[in-house]
Specification:
Number of helices: 2
Order of helices and strands: HEEHEEEEEE
Strand order of the largest sheet: 1-2-3-4-5-6-7-8
Length: about 200
């Protein structure tokens, strides 16, 4: 009887051990199903709106008269995170679309491209962008106002230095340059403008 009791205890112990393994396995599977059923965080496409004004810093006949109201929208389809490390920020650019509106006979630009933003812990951020622009300015007539730009579509790049006042509002000083890189048959006067942009991050 002692032997039977001992064997019975061993069987019960083994059964409980095996049962606990299956229960644990079912719990893990259930948790995995729950995680799989949980939707992944959505990427916030419409990320930031900026508005401001700029002015030409070119001299002589290439100077553009008037002030240029600027509007820019930034999209975040690649998951840019301002709290990540600098390597992660550089590998997740945002997409920008905008316009710089000409006044006093100067050229209006409609542009787009990629923006790389490095946000530092003290609220300061630096930014560079590269893309293309279309303009309605002077192409190759020396009698018209402004630089002779050679063709309608140009390369556009900019660099900026800014400060985040909080999680939504920021301000950035920037310099933007547009030119054809001597790829057009005509002139390559280019447009260089400096200005301030106020941003609201959603």
């Amino acid at each position: 009887m002692a032997i039977v009791g001992f064997v019975s205890k061993r069987l019960v112990t083994s059964f409980l051990a095996v049962s606990s393994v299956f229960v644990a396995g079912e719990s893990v599977a259930s948790a995995a199903d729950t995680v799989a059923a949980t939707p992944a965080p959505q990427v916030k496409i419409f990320d930031e709106l900026r508005f401001g004004a700029s002015g030409s810093i070119q001299n002589g006949n290439e100077h553009e008269n008037g002030v240029f109201p600027d509007v820019q929208v930034l999209f975040n389809p690649f998951g840019y995170n301002p709290t990540a490390d600098w390597k992660d920020q550089l590998t997740h650019p945002r997409i920008h679309l905008g316009t710089s509106i000409g006044t006093a006979g100067s050229a209006t630009q409609v542009y787009g491209g990629l923006s790389w933003t490095l946000t530092h812990s003290n609220g300061i951020f630096t930014e560079v962008g590269f893309g293309g622009t279309w303009h309605n300015g002077n192409i190759d007539n020396w009698r018209e106002h402004g630089p002779m730009l050679g063709c309608r579509f140009l390369f556009r790049e900019y660099a900026g230095l800014g400060y985040n006042f909080d999680s939504h509002w920021n301000m950035m000083a920037q310099i933007a340059h547009s030119s054809n890189a001597n790829l057009c048959d005509g002139h390559n006067g280019g447009m260089t403008r400096v200005g301030l942009m106020v941003g609201y991050k959603f």
